[in-house]
Amino acid sequence: MAVQGKKIAVFVLVVFVAYAIITDPEKAADYVQIGFEGISSAAQAIGDFMTWVVNGGE
């Protein structure tokens, strides 16, 4: 039963994303850009933390 629920949730999410892209592609592109900027910032922060750890916390 849980597997069917996951399949339905994924299907609804895919339909929503397709609808958002078709109805307003500029706004959808903005959302994608914001998402990639967030991922990039997170990766940068992890890199900075690892550099700090390797340098002995200085």
Q: Please report which band the strand proportion falls in: under 5%, 5-15%, 15-25%, 25-35%, 35-45% or over 45%.
A: under 5%
Output the radius of gyration: 19 Å
Distance between the termini: 52 Å
Class from helix and strand fractions: mainly alpha
Helical content band: over 70%
Features:
58 residues; 2 helices; mainly alpha
Summarize the structure in words.
The chain is mostly helical and 58 residues long. It contains 2 helices and no strands. The protein has a domain at 24-58. Helix content is 90%, strand content 0%. The longest helix has 30 residues, at 25-54. The mean pLDDT is 91.
Write the layout of secondary structure elements.
Elements: H1 2-23, H2 25-54
Helix pairs in contact: 1-2
Q: What's the short version?
A:
The chain has 58 residues and is mostly helical. The protein has two helices and no strands.
